Amino acid sequence: MQGRSNSRSYQIVWVAALTLLISVALVACDSMSTVQRTPSPTSPPTTTTIATMPPLMSEVGWHTVFTLGDPSGNGAASIQKSFTANKTYTIFFSCKGAGTLKIKYESNTETAPCSGSPELNGTQPTEPAHSGETVTVSVTPSGDIVWELLVSMQD
Question: In CATH, what is the architecture of 62-154?
Answer without folding.
Answer: Sandwich (2.60)
